Amino acid sequence: MNITKQDIDALNAVVKIDIVAEDYQANVTRQLEEKRKKTDIPGFRKGQVPMGMIKKQHEKAIVIEEVNKVLQNSLNNYLAQQKLDLLGNPLPKMKDELNWDAEEFSFEFEIGLAPKFEVDLAPAKKVVQYNIIATDELLDKEVENIQARFGNQLPVETADDDANITGTFVNEEKEINKKATISVKEISGEENLKKFVGAKVGDVLSLETKGLFADEHKLQEALGVPHEAVHGLAVPVSFTIDAVTKTEPAPLEKELFDKLFADGSVTSVDELKGKIKEDAEKQFEQQADQQLLNAITENLVENTTFDLPKEFLQKWLQTAGQKQLTIEEAAAEYEKSEKGLRYQLIEGKIMRDNDIKLEYAELVDYAKGFIRSQMAQFGNMNPEEKELNDIAARVLQNQEEAQKLQAQLISHKLLAFYKEKITFDSKELSYEDFVKEVYK
């Protein structure tokens, strides 16, 4: 056997494998002998059928099987020994139909090679690192929401801007028949508001779903329609009013504080606001970190230039999935995935160059932390270590879940590395301004 590599350019090469009879013939002979021992043909004793008959019936199929085994093993071993950094998988170069009656065979495989490049962690344009703060306005609003959530619902005769209205939405054609409680404050549009303000129990309002709420997800909740059906939904509905109420806010006193914090850690409005601020800014920090990682990713991809074996990758994408793609479909798929591939290469290089590794024990600990937080949401604040270990083991046996947790942990490690190595422009702002600036 002879294996050679011909470099086409820095990103493309062809591996040629020449196979001779000595590479596969012993296994072919052994399989033929096994076939002969088991073959039972009338007129011959079992195991005594002439080898010529056995060869005529089985030899070609066995040769094909053994040559393919030798080919695959030798290709895999060669690529491993040469330590080639490949993109995609080797693609066999198509030839005219092989003559399987020959004793020597030659095969060629196209391979795509990963590019060589350097990563600059100090780009000319700095990334912004946001510090999101909970403003006094946000804290006051959240206190009001808590008071409303734990307050009493008092019936009133007619609805005003602060009323809550319970009723049933109906549209027979769309099979909508859903009871819902909505706040008049959630209603969008002056004409719609006129219909709700002054309404009483027993009134039937004729409404249009389009523009009824500023948030279409609120419309989905109110009508009970599927998520995919609510966007752009424009149908008439009737709304029959069953109850009109107003919320009497819960007083800001010990009874409410103890409902919220049974450990007695909150005894005043200021302490309540302090807890709200702490929890809110923890959540804001997570969002800011995710935005920072996204911004760093965009920056690295934009400022790290290298070529890719585009034609090879498009050809490989045609056969990489379960469904064969056309040339046009593969080209479109490449355009969608190119940016992600570039960042994968950049991420891999950063991790190799800076010895950033992921140990299995770290993944187990991370999985346990994730499980612990999930259990806390259901009131189990102190799960036993054995229980955590058992659940983590089951979760990590699921390949999809394990890969998801691994990706999250790698992101955490990389973000910590970036924060240490990259200088950012810092900006402090409210959550509302953060949303406007980042997701405008």
From TrEMBL:
Alphabetized InterPro entries for the sequence: Trig_fac, Trigger_fac_C, Trigger_fac_C_sf, Trigger_fac_ribosome-bd_bac, Trigger_fac_ribosome-bd_sf, Trigger_fact/SurA_dom_sf
Enzyme Commission code(s) on record: 5.2.1.8
GO molecular function terms attached to this record: peptidyl-prolyl cis-trans isomerase activity
Pfam families: Trigger_C, Trigger_N
Domain Trigger factor C-terminal as annotated: residue spans: 268-385
UniProt enzyme class: isomerase
A Gene Ontology BP annotation from the UniProt entry: protein transport
Keywords for the protein's UniProt record, in alphabetical order: Chaperone, Isomerase, Rotamase
Family statement: Belongs to the FKBP-type PPIase family. Tig subfamily.
SUPFAM superfamilies (alphabetical): Triger factor/SurA peptide-binding domain-like, Trigger factor ribosome-binding domain
Name this polypeptide is given: Trigger factor
Record carries keyword Ribosomal protein: no
Main location: cytoplasm
Location in or out of the cell: Cytoplasm
Cellular component aspect of the GO annotation: cytoplasm
Catalytic reaction annotation: [protein]-peptidylproline (omega=180) = [protein]-peptidylproline (omega=0)
Trigger factor ribosome-binding bacterial domain boundaries: 1-146
